[in-house]
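Changelog note: in this version the structure field was regenerated for every chain. One regenerated record is shown below for reference.
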Amino acid sequence: MIVFNRPRTTRIVFDAVAKIRPAKLLLIADGPRANQSGEEEQCAQVREIVRAVDWPCELLTNFASSNLGCQERVISGLDWVFSLVEEAIILEDDCLPDLSFFPFCRELLERYRGDSRISYISGTNLVQHYTVTNDSYFFSQIGGIWGWATWRSEWKRYDRHLIDWPELRNENRLAEVFDQPQVVAYWTRIFNLMHENKGPNTWDYQWLYAGLKNNSLTVVPSVNLIRNIGFGEGATHTTEPDARFILPANPMIFPLKHPASFIPSRSLDQRRVQDMISAPLFQRVSTKLRRAARRLLRRPPSHAG
């Protein structure tokens, strides 16, 4: 479990974890920022919450004494995790799982252990309204990291600096993955920024890149198993509510029904990418209103004859 400075969301997510009483719990926490008033107290409260384990459990902690930032804290934290365990289920402090998320991950971690075709198991399905399948999950090249699980062998493929990106870019490899030029341009811009260390302070674009580069697949549940409760004030990246991404968590039905093939659902991936690169509704409406206002201001006044 990865935590930082939000006691309210941390307590809600930790209460869900406590219900399944894991035998081993690894905690990653970032430290307070020196220029943020009150954050030292908030971080201390968070650490107190996640230490309150009242069931038989091996509790391991990796708490930063000072602030490392989102990218460094998550990467160094997961490096620590996978130095200790072969596989892990990973939650952040604002990712509230349906309890069926845990047996879903556990079963599929075992099923695909050692299968290099699968990079990780996601609990997030942000296109569930478009998902039509009789199976319990489908395969994706995009995935989602609001609640996920993977193995040490896959995390070893992670490359925070995208070292070989210039070669793949020059060979136009993304055009072999994505059909639409605007999607290729979108990911090219992001990977350029991350390679040049000019991108956002995050770690997940590099994780997506590792999957694309290795032609890996992500398991995505047929229903969304994770509700993000962290949009708004205090969030690192999701500072503005967006209805496209705020979905309820639903229970998975067991026994799981497994797909008959490993073919990724490109139609659902296309829908997911379109949501990622398009502006939210309120932003589109606001833009249209501003454009209309500018046209009215430029329009010469009319004179009655």
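Spot check on this record: Residues 2-291 form a domain with the Spore Coat Polysaccharide Biosynthesis Protein SpsA; Chain A fold (CATH 3.90.550.10). The chain has one domain: 2-291.
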